[in-house]
Structure formats: C-alpha cells, structure tokens
Q: What sequence folds into this?
C-alpha cells in the first residue's frame, strides 16, 4: 500500500519534489518538497485509493473505534468519507473554539469515554495533531490513535507523538515517496540522499548546495 499511495500522490503532484528550487515554509525553512493532499479530493481514483486505505488502517489498527474525528480543515473531508465507508459517526476539531453560538471546538456528538481515532492528512512536526488529541482527551474521549495519509517521519514529530503517548499509522511516508520518485523519474536517484538529509534535520540547509550525480 505504501508504494501504491506514493505513486498516487506523485501522479497528481499532491507531493511534489523540487530539490533544485526549494520551497520556503512559513517558518522560513527551505524544503525540497511541497505537499498538498487536498488535491486527492479532486482526483476520484486517487481519492478512492486514499479513503479505502484509511478505512483499512482503521480496521487493522483500531478495531474498537467508535468515532472518527478530523483535523481542521484538511482532515475533515477524509474523516467524513472514511467514516462513511466504515459506517461510523464522525466530527472534527476546530483549531480554536468558536466565538459565537455554543462556542464549540469539537463539532459533532462526542460522549465522554468514547473511543476516537483522529484523521489527519499530513504529519510533519506533529504539533497541530497533538493539539487535537489533547482537546479530545480533555473532553473525556479515549483517543486510540491517529491515521494519516502521509508522514515525514521527522525526529521532532516522532518525539512529540511519543511524548504525547499517541500512535500514528500512515498510508505512506517520506522515505517511500522519495524512493518511488527516483524510480519513476520525478527526481534523480542521487537526489534521494539529499531529501533524506533534509528529513533528518530540516533546519540544516547544507543539502541545498549538495550536487549529486544521477
């Protein structure tokens, strides 16, 4: 599944590598990769693969789940479609409480003690998804873990997930996508080491000046 989803994401440029002309993140970090998993929603076959894959991960890793909760906003659609496939209730968690009405941060019915799986599209440093987990726990939910489309596998993200005592399973990951990108001709084989160097330490930009031979 990891390779199949990697090919899907590359084919629609939901994951796009540009090691020679790095993108700049909001944090200022230079990145050789751009990720926009929202593009899966407008590619029906890829969307079908992704949602069925997420449903399979939930069935395999969290068989006791009672509710799916999407992250706002990217995880909402994926949570809704996956919940439909699994015939489960779903809701989502806002990035902050509303300033009107009932001032909800959790949208949808959630009872204390219910077993929840969080649906996320992408995990990098893990900060935003862990905030969602904490909101759900504070509301009395039993968070079984997270399912996501893609994870970078960055040390900071892995350490944060471990510290929060939360499990994540992803359809694919940075290493697999980098390997497939080289095999499929999206990047040069020599670029893979540069991409992994970035993944291992995003704040170290020495990979930018590294020229490999294809």
A:
């Amino acid at each position: 599944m990891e390779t199949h989803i990697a090919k899907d994401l590359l084919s629609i440029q939901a994951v796009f590598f540009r090691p020679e002309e790095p993108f700049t993140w909001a944090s200022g970090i230079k990145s050789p990769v751009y990720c926009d998993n929202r593009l899966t929603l407008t590619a029906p076959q890829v969307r079908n693969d992704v949602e069925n894959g997420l449903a399979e991960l939930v069935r395999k890793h969290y068989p006791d789940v009672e509710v799916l909760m999407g992250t706002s906003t990217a995880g909402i659609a994926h949570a809704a479609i996956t919940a439909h496939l699994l015939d489960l209730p779903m809701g989502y968690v806002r990035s902050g409480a509303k300033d009107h009405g009932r001032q909800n941060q959790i949208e949808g019915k959630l009872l204390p003690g219910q077993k929840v799986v969080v649906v996320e599209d992408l995990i990098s440093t893990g900060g935003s998804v862990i905030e969602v987990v904490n909101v759900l726990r504070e509301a009395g939910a039993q968070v079984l873990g997270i399912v996501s489309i893609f994870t970078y596998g960055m040390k900071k993200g892995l350490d944060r997930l471990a510290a929060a005592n939360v499990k994540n399973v992803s359809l694919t990951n940075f290493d697999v996508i980098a390997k497939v990108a080289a095999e499929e001709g999206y990047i040069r084989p020599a670029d893979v080491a540069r991409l992994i160097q970035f993944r291992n330490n995003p704040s170290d930009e020495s990979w930018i000046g590294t020229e490999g031979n294809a």
